[in-house]
Amino acid sequence: AVVHAAGVGGLGGLPELTEDDLAAARAGKADGAEHLDALCGDLDAFVLFGSVAATWGGAGQAAYAAANARLEALALRRAARGASATCVAWGAWGGAGMAGGAEHELARRGVLAMDPDVALHALADAVADSAPTVTVAGVDWPAFARAFSAARPSPLLAGLAGGDTATGTEKPGEAGDLRERLRSLPPYDRLDTALDLVRAQAALVLGHAHSGDVEPGRAFRDLGFDSLTAVEMRNRLNAATGLPLTATVVFDHPTPAELAAHLLEECGMASDSGTDTTGTDGGTGAGDDGEQRVRAALARVPLARLREAGLLDPLLRLAGEEPDDADAPTAHPVDELDGEALLRLVAADDGEY
């Protein structure tokens, strides 16, 4: 028997692939198997380790998926001429392996790491069977169907539980629920509420334990979002808000803060002032005193600037907080110099300061 279990990984979508990328993936996965096929005579078993990337695809695995599809074609050619062949398209194995370190991310998308002992039993069953190709993977089907069909329809997975896999959408909630909830809040609390919602959903998509791990001003791409997780985020926000958001909303409004402001606008509330622009009677509402705009402006001022201007302590007292002595500026001899002394200091070359 021959068991071919070699492979070369590497991520890359179709637009970024080069001939060298394709050649490297093909050499590690398919070329060696084809040489073995040509060199070996009659065998009791000819076993090829493939990947589910050739079965249903994989984000950023264009070259790897193509190489594994070529491996399956080899098994089919051998079977057609009456030779032994078993190509197993494996899912993720637990422990060491090509999926090592990505188990958490894969599980979030519904692909579960298999216990090696269980996988080996499945391998024995596959070799004993007459089918030349088979897929063996640990899958949470509802979660996988939702993630896989988020960006496009999937006839392969249609009918599985967990959302409408034929259209890649989930039924949204009632938009009025979010609008009413925001209207019940003071204008200055609306943006924070929308931001909390965005950060909480982003944390779920990225697998973080707490929404505090999602920085409001950091770009979604830098947080770890890709095209698939962006669509998953859109679907979650659709379900949570009932708003008809686009699949690219995460990249059109590239930070959690900007996306939260967009949600307010979609609900008919201006994010810069916290005003309900639709008004309670359906018309255009009058603006408030710009409290939300002032709060947003203050949030952009570094603490050091407030401290230099002598405003930090008064602001803390207005907020009911006692200033921390640690916030006080550190005294420096230069602070005691007048303008003429400062000019002499600048002109001096004695290195005293």
Overall spatial form: elongated
Stated plainly, the CATH topology of the largest domain is called Rossmann fold
Radius of gyration: 30 Å
Contiguous uncertain segments of 5+ residues: 161-176, 272-289, 326-332, 349-353
Secondary structural class = alpha/beta
How much helix is in the residues?
40-55%
- CATH level 1 class label of the largest domain: Alpha Beta
Percent strand equals 5-15%
CATH homology superfamily of the largest domain: NAD(P)-binding Rossmann-like Domain
Strand order of the largest sheet: 1-2-3-5
The total of beta strands comes to 8
**Helix tally?**
16
Average pLDDT, all residues: 76
Give a short account of the largest sheet.
Answer: 4 strands, parallel
Order of secondary-structure elements: EHEHHEHEHEEHHHHHHHEEHHHH
Q: What is the CATH-assigned architecture of the largest domain? A: 3-Layer(aba) Sandwich
